[in-house]
Amino acid sequence: MSTTITASGPLTRWRTIDLLTCAFLGVAFGVAYWAWGLAYEAPATAVSAGFPPLSALFAWPWLVAGIVGMLVIRRPGAAVFTELLAAIVSALIGTQWGLTTLVSGLVQGLGVELGFALFGYAVYSWAPLLIGGFLGGAFEAVYEWYSYWTDWGFGYKIAYLFLLGGSVAIFGSLLAVGLTKLLANAGALAAFPPGQEARERAAV
Amino acid sequence: MTERAPADAADLVDPPGRPSGAAPRGAGVEVSGLSWRPYGRARPVLHGLDLRIAAGERVLLAGPSGSGKSTLLRALAGLLLTADSGELAGEVTLDGEPERRAGSVGLVLQDPGAGVVASSIGRDVAFGLENVGVARDAMPARVAAALAEVGLDLPPDSSPATLSGGEAQRLALAGALVMEPRLLLLDEPTAMLDADTAAGVRAVVADVVERRGLTLVVVEHRLTGWLDLVDRLVVLDGDGRVVADDAPHDVLAEHADSLVRQGIWVPGAPEPQPLAVALTPMPLASAGVVAPGERVVTGTGLGVERRSRRLGSTSRSTTAVAGADLSVAAGRLTALTGPSGAGKSTLMAAVGGLLAPTSGHVDVAAPLLPGSGGSSERPRPPHGWPSVDLARVVAWVPQRAATAVVGRTVRDDVLTTARALGHDGSDAETRADELLATLGLARLADTDPRHLSGGEQRRLAVASAIAHGPALVLADEPTVGQDRLTWAAVMGTLEAARREGAGVLVTTHDPGVVDRADHEVALVRPPQPAADPEPERRPLLARVGPLALLVAALCVLPLPALLGSWRQGLLVLAVELTLGLVGLLAPGPGRRPEGRLRGVLARLAPAVVAVAGVAWSAWLLGGRDLEIAAGAALRVLCLIVPSAFVVGFIDPERLGDHLAQRVHLPARPVVAATAALQRLQSFDDLWTELMTTRRVRGIRADHGLVRRGAEAVAVTGGLLVGALGQAAGLALAMDARGFAGAHRRSWAGPAPWRLADSLAVGGGLAIIGAALAARALVA
């Protein structure tokens, strides 16, 4: 990426297509989240038989929506909106965590959002991705300490936080960057900065 | 050019109580020096275009594919930058003003249903009124008037999903008319419709434009039918320049031949002839195995039931096909015709093994069966065949050609199935190159197929389907909306497959296709199961608003901090279950509702696994103490049980109404989210279509965890691309109805707070109360 293109106009002035793209991404990811919830339990339970915090290694996909939303839209609130909507959709279809999934969606989105806010919504490279991904995972871990892992000792809790934060920062970012690239190359992001970057590269 | 400033649009609205005596009239339009180059394109689509349209004038805009007709239409609507980005210069004014009042330009898009935002047609028409802040009680009359004006005499609470293509276009027109536009823009409004339905839509347009004195600009490449309705015919060339602009019959007298050469359907011109497609035979092709005239496949007594599911309501079952017989003969073209909703596509999919019929059976000719076919037992029906076996025999061109893309390049795409079958010798390569050359795709061989135009994608889809020589070729409305050139290419390719001995089955409304078919099979709409005369009683929870349900279910959030032992957890769980079961009661007159408890149990089933996981880790850590494990399990159950009861009763659209009006969440994100939620079913359909495409192309991962995982990622990518395409279309439709400036909008749906809502929230608080009591009283 030679130059970073930021969103057009004042960053807080969301265009209709910004809102709809976030919303459609949120709904599509919500369905995927629901499906992942079905697939997740068996492997997560298997690895946690030895060391329970390892289940974090299967929880990172649930933060990808917010990261993709932010990478595509590049406006304040994009991560929270996309992630929260994905959580609502998966809860309405019916996940094992019910409507409390909303809280997860909110804290995960806020964590990711914070990573990009630290850079003034002007940088979309690895630094904010790693920080935002880590914070999103860490926020979720803290919420889960409270709601699910009450009985764990502090060592396990810290291990879980770093495993979840780290895997979101690395795997979550990689998947989100890959998906964004796929969408840009497919010509689906014509109205957005990543699509413009891809097209300007192709135009050279 | 000045784009409409979103913040100001709401201030430019006519007051809702406008005296009816002031009849609306058309606006004069002036385009000067308009240039548009999308980023990534070397040449501009429009270059210094000038055009004047007088108030009340009716203009038909024609030109070859890629001439910028749709682009010009978007520029007139002030929506060029809505769903694309690029360099824009020049100016478009309406009556001399660059600014537009929200809704002063009405836009109807090609794809029926692309602009639907709501779950009922009344609500959908009211969308523009909401955006400009019309009071709720003023809406029903205006909505009813608009629906009546377009002749859509359905109850306002009908679902837009059940509309036929023609009805959907009338709905889109009503949604534009309710905003009192002065300029009406129609982007190929009848391209997807059959001839009779198209004539009906044109008649409505003619009537409305005449009565209201609107300025009209229509883009079409089938000129027949529109010519008598317009005053002027403007023709653009491939470079986006005006090459002809005069009274329609004068333009045709001079330019008819060149228009026909560019692919435009001109009345009086001879029907196009299918392209002559000569192909090198495929050595291992299944086409030609069955003798010409013999049956390739026979479907007997086929029935297909469809279940449609919507969030927040019960699923409904519809009969798509009932007791249908259909056989396809080798070397013959069979046309499947019938009105929209007759189940043509579904029957075709059932005969081709793309879906499992609910009743009846499909028999494939013995020489085509997978394996040796020597066994005496009844052969497996094609819907159970593995991907490769199906692909060898069957090919499918879906109506949405964009979803048929599976290759990274155009040439890859054509060769995909031959490679999957292991038939990738030089014959396959030669054949692929012949197909690409004949269909005018050779220069695009190394291009990413997703970047092709609609017509090019359609030609590619047909070429890729027949490249490996399948015995049964299924094509769903292959010529709809295509220009003459693509029509000739598509029909030429299908006829080449017929010559090779394939049985070709085509669903179509196109008389040109039916004329060339060997057989025509006409379907009628299957009878639907009668609606129950006695309405179901509604459970108590169904009488509660969505916001109260959400709040009640979230009352569980303090529980992890409150519950200290399994006894406390058990007590709270008992309270939750009691409250939930009370909520499922359905007192009053009417039929007993079914499946209440089943729904709750179905939602709890995955939770059991999650609870077991938490209990396991607590047991492992808590010194293998069963009491600690039980405490952890019950705590998690307490968190999720209330949701299992309420989730099925939350309707997303009503939740949006409540969140915006009661909680005062920002209006536009809420509307965007609920509009996207309306499309959940279409995501489901798209997923199925993408998977079916992979299966029939021979690349579906039938087994293997890693291959299936990789496939899920690939299809998710395709789903996202499709979803974002829908978002772009919807953004255009919504901005055309004033959504960009709708920061202070009104709401057609009320958000009342009733006694039932207070009781539900009381129930939620009772759960917290029970936890506090348990803490105080139980160890």
From TrEMBL, chain A:
Residues annotated as transmembrane: 17-36, 56-73, 80-99, 158-179
**Lineage per the UniProt record:** Bacteria, Bacillati, Actinomycetota, Actinomycetes, Micrococcales
Q: Which UniProt keywords apply?
A: Membrane, Transmembrane, Transmembrane helix
A Pfam family name for this chain? ABC_cobalt
The protein in question is named: Energy-coupling factor transport system substrate-specific component
User: InterPro entries, from UniProt?
Assistant: ABC_thiamin-permease_prd
From TrEMBL, chain B:
Specify residue ranges for compositional bias: Low complexity: 7-28
MF GO annotations: ATP binding; ATP hydrolysis activity; ATPase-coupled transmembrane transporter activity
Coiled coil where? Answer: none
Name the SUPFAM superfamilies for this protein. Answer: P-loop containing nucleoside triphosphate hydrolases (SSF52540)
ABC transporter domain mapped to chain residues: 29-264, 306-551
Q: Short name of one Pfam family for this protein?
A: ABC_tran
What's the chief localization of this chain?
membrane
Membrane topology, as annotated, equals: Multi-pass membrane protein
Where is this gene product found? Membrane
Any GO CC annotation of this UniProt entry: ATP-binding cassette (ABC) transporter complex
> Keywords on this record?
ATP-binding, Membrane, Nucleotide-binding, Transmembrane, Transmembrane helix, Transport
Annotated region Disordered: where? 1-29
Transmembrane parts of this sequence: 544-563, 569-588, 600-622, 628-650, 712-733, 753-778
Sequence similarity? Belongs to the ABC transporter superfamily.
Task: Tell me the protein's name.
Answer: Energy-coupling factor transport system ATP-binding protein
